[in-house]
Write a structure and sequence with these properties.
globular
């Protein structure tokens, strides 16, 4: 029983993170990059998107909806009133979702007048899209975790945000990073279950969203290792040692490919500046000062701090690799002679 409990606890932790990533991906595709101070609006949108289908079910089956929402049942004589309340909520909740989405852009870019009314009405398809993505990932993510447990593999997720039009570039860069780390992989199309959320968003989100959703999700598969690249998540499965080496290689490569490792608009802007600094087009000291002065969430600050150190290392040495396997080593005779000189110097010092 203890082993089963550990498995379910592990799946629960991973599922929570996957759902967060899935929702972030969906909202960024539908509404663009969101400043940190708008995160409360996103929470409200997630809540309305999850409640709406329950409310719709409550119109036909009032007792079912009240049980799910309040964990209690109601007398039969109250059913007509519950149905009316559910009907009102079925109309209002998507409009609330649309109104919250209208608050996401900066003040100067928020829709007004007719554009505002259109944005509010788009709460209906947006609510459906967000609900499908979240529920589908609630099904797919645990299956992936169970598969990893049965294989005695480990699972990991690296939060990223692929830039518009950069999906194939990121896949190629990550494949190259794995190859240089000695992990041979081949590209193949991901399972249709992982592509479904993107297809739903593309249909309900309109032309703008369709332009951001990749035509096909890609997997990189090797011996004891699998990686699936989603627009807002890098899902890794593999043996412990292989997975550890893969994560190290991938995290180094992500700094200089077409993807963000942070999720707020302000942090991603700083990531853009770090990439420019790596090419000598921005000042690392100024970026470091801004990192100190800005009020980032700790997890984002930690990522930006690591990226700053990585770029500083690459600018100073020309590489950010931790090993020198590709550099020529001195001959054995030269290394022995150098060691002898060091020892002789120490003896003379005494």
């Amino acid at each position: 029983m203890l082993e089963i409990g550990v498995v379910f606890a592990f799946i629960g932790r991973q599922l929570g993170r996957v759902l967060t990533l899935a929702f972030n991906w969906a909202t960024i595709l539908l509404f663009g990059r969101v400043p940190q101070d708008r995160q409360l609006y996103l929470s409200g949108m997630a809540l309305t998107a999850l409640l709406w289908p329950i409310v719709l079910a409550g119109i036909a089956f009032p007792s079912f909806a009240t049980f799910l929402l309040g964990l209690f049942t109601v007398p039969d004589w109250l059913n007509p009133w519950v149905r009316l309340a559910m009907l009102a909520l079925a109309v209002v909740l998507p409009l609330v979702n649309g109104a919250l989405s209208a608050r996401l852009p900066e003040d100067s870019k928020r829709p007004k007048g007719r554009a505002l009314a259109t944005t509010i009405l788009r709460g209906y398809p947006n609510s459906l899209a967000l609900f499908v993505v979240l529920v589908w990932m609630m099904v797919v993510a645990p299956l992936g975790q169970i598969r990893a447990v049965l294989r005695r593999w480990e699972a990991a997720h690296v939060p990223i945000a692929v830039k518009p039009g950069g999906y194939d570039t990121v896949v190629g860069d990550l494949g190259g990073a794995l190859d240089r780390a000695g992990i041979k992989v081949a590209r193949r199309r991901a399972h249709w279950a992982y592509e479904l959320p993107g297809k739903v968003l593309a249909v309900l989100g309109g032309e703008t969203v369709r332009a951001l959703v990749p035509q096909q999700l890609a997997e990189l598969v090797g011996d004891g290792f699998e990686m699936t690249l989603h627009p807002m998540d890098l899902s890794l499965l593999g043996r412990k040692k292989t997975l550890s080496h893969a994560r190290a290689a991938i995290v180094r490569e992500l700094t200089f490919t077409e993807a963000y490792q942070t999720w707020s608009k302000e942090a991603q802007a700083l990531e853009d500046r770090l990439v420019q600094a790596a090419h000598g087009e921005d000042d690392l000291d100024a970026i470091g000062t801004e990192l100190i002065e800005r009020d980032f969430a700790f997890e984002e600050w930690e990522i930006l701090y690591r990226l700053l150190l990585q770029v500083r290392l690459r600018v100073g040495t020309g590489t950010d690799a931790l090993d020198t396997a590709d550099e020529p080593k001195p001959a054995l005779r030269e290394r022995v002679a150098a060691a002898a000189r060091v020892l002789a110097g120490r003896s003379n010092g005494h």
